[in-house]
Amino acid sequence: MVKETTKLICITCPVGCRLEVTHEGKTIVKVEGDECKKGIDYAETELSDPQRMVFTVVRVKDGLHPVVPVRSTEPVPKAKIFPILRRLREVELEAPVEMHQVVLANAEGTGIGVVTSRPLPAMAEQPTSAPVGES
Q1: What three-state secondary structure class fits 107?
Q2: Does residue 84 contact residue 107 with C-beta atoms inside 8 Å?
Q3: Which of 34, 100, 114, 126 has the lowest tally of Cβ within 10 angstroms?
Q4: Residue pLDDT tens, the chain, 135 long
Q5: H/E run at residue 121
Q6: In this structure, which topology does domain 3-48 adopt according to CATH?
Q7: What are the residue ranges spanned by the domains of the chain?
Q8: pTM
Q9: Does 3.30.9.30 match the CATH number of domain 55-116?
Q10: Is the dihedral of CA 47, 53, 57, 58 positive or negative?
Q11: How far apart are CA 31 and CA 39, in angstroms?
Q12: CA separation for the pair 34, 39 (Å, rounded)
């Protein structure tokens, strides 16, 4: 097999190491530029099964705000991100919404959940007031 070099920026921590990964297919031969073991782990995962966390918002009916932020509970395979986002576009929660409320239990068959990132109360009833000049 032919050796290739792939340049990556590690997104595991805030340092953002610039990695140069020499590999034969998915087999890593050498990693340069890593400042910690996380860089090597990231390079291995990125070449064999790239994954990302999913963050977006979903609609909320009768909520204080019209949407609530949601996130995946674990990184999901990159190939599943857009199908998950399409599915989340169809979701509308009913207020009130609890923190870590499950939005999707098994997102696109990954076994990974999508949960809310914050609570969202229901819209408060507006008090009715008497018209001006009436008591």
Answers
A1: helix
A2: yes
A3: 126
A4: 799 999 999 998 999 999 999 999 889 999 999 998 899 999 999 999 999 999 999 999 999 999 999 999 999 999 999 999 999 999 999 999 999 999 999 999 999 999 999 999 999 755 556 666 665
A5: none
A6: N-terminal domain of TfIIb (2.20.25)
A7: 3-48, 55-116
A8: 0.79
A9: no
A10: positive
A11: 8
A12: 5
CA 78 to chain centre: 11
The two tokens of residue 88 are 């989340």
Torsion of CA 11, 14, 17, 21, to 10 degrees: -20
Using CA atoms, how far residue 22 sits from 2, 5, 40, in Å, is 10, 4, 12
| CA 30 to chain centroid | 30
What 102-111 contacts at long range (C-beta under 8 Å, 24+ apart), as own/partner pairs, is 103/58, 103/70, 107/54, 107/72, 107/76, 107/80, 108/76, 108/80, 108/83, 108/84, 110/76, 110/77, 110/80, 110/84
User: What is the DSSP secondary-structure string of 32-96?
Assistant: ES-SSHHHHHHHHHHHHS-EE--EEEEEEETBSSSEEEEEESS-EEHHHHHHHHHHHHT-EEESS
Residues 44/71, Cβ–Cβ less than 8 Å:
no
